[in-house]
Amino acid sequence: MRLGRLTLAASALLLVTTASVPSGTPLSQTGRHAALSSDVVRPRGAAPRPEVQRARHEVPFGAFVGSWDSYIPNIAAMARWLNGANMQVGHTYLAGNGWNDVEGETTVLGLWSQWRQADPARRLVLGVPMLVPNEAGVPDAEVAGLLARGNKGEFDAHFLKLARQLVALGGGDTVITLGWEMNGVTYTSRCKPDPTTWKAYWRRIVGVMRSVPGQHFAFDFTPTRGLDAVPWTHCYPGDDVVDIIGMDSYDQPAGATFDDYVAEPYGLQDQVEFAAKRGKPVSYPEWGLFRNGDNPVFVTRMVEWMRTHDTAYQTVTDYCPHGFWQCGQNPRSAARYQQLMSGSQGTPSGAAAGRPAGAPGQAEPAQTASAQAAGD
Fold first, then answer.
1. Which residues contact 358 (CB under 8 A, 6 or more apart)?
2. Which domains does the chain have, with CATH numbers?
3. Predicted confidence (pLDDT) per residue in 86-97, tens digit
4. Crossing angle for the helix pair 156-168 and 195-210, nearest 10 degrees?
5. What is d(CA 219, CA 138) in angstroms, rounded to the nearest whole number?
6. Pick from 242, 238, 232: which is nearest to 265 by CA?
7. Cα separation of 214 and 239, whole Å?
8. Smallest Cα–Cα separation from 180: which of 346, 27, 331, 3?
9. What is this structure's pTM?
10. Please, where are the H alpha helices in 152-267?
11. Cβ neighbours, 10 Å, residue 58
């Protein structure tokens, strides 16, 4: 979330554009859920199925503190604010203005990879657009055309170059949030114009990137929480090409409670059930405050949720209006987050990235009809 993350005017553009993002669809509109996916469907008004839950545990965590390499020192500064917490996860994004951005800027990727290699327990999470320009308000018909071109292999070389660069720079185990928030309308890399082709294109990209010797990428399928523009289950590309099932979860819409976020169609409960059915961990690459202002209850409940489920990692979006350390407008939530995360040491190496590509129980990324249909 959301627009302007990678521009020089990031904060100003964010405030202008987020109001139009429908990821906070009013809960009164979610009755459509009963006619949608059999993977997570519950009759309207029915109690949630018993959730899959584990004992409370620490989770590898970090924060999005800025995309460019100059922001890397902010991780250590925020860790000091958290009384020496071990912020094991670094989170950044590729800009997506053109294909050169998707291939990755060598200096930026190199310095982020150096940060990751300084501690074997660290993980680098990288947002990778599937199409460009990724934040330009491209109409649906044009998105559908781009997806078709991508599925024919026209853009393969860009993802191959990115994968080779990451491996060469020591980032071969990067967690990749490919086409994040695909169930919304914000990004060109979205699913709604043609879910079938979108899924096939995701599979193609994963196959290209996994073909590079030395890679151990983990691919994180990360929709926004809730229904948004299209049910995220309709975009799911198949168990063999997804390692982690993520969700971006902000405190919206206005007036909603955390219990709403758990129980809403395609919400937190549905996410953990969908992932458990497939034997995969969940993640929260983006989370934070939004439409309900300074809300320490949301912070408490969100951290507790992540600590009592099979969470591979979590990274809060740490700028206004969402965050705590870099945002002075949320003092009560900042105090609560600091209290909850102070001194946290995360988990041992290996737990942060989920199941790496090619691990037991995962098929090769062949384009089988059954795998393509897994999310229908």
1. 210, 216, 364
2. 64-362 (3.20.20.80)
3. 999 999 999 999
4. 40
5. 25
6. 232
7. 22
8. 3
9. 0.84
10. 156-168, 195-210, 258-263
11. 15
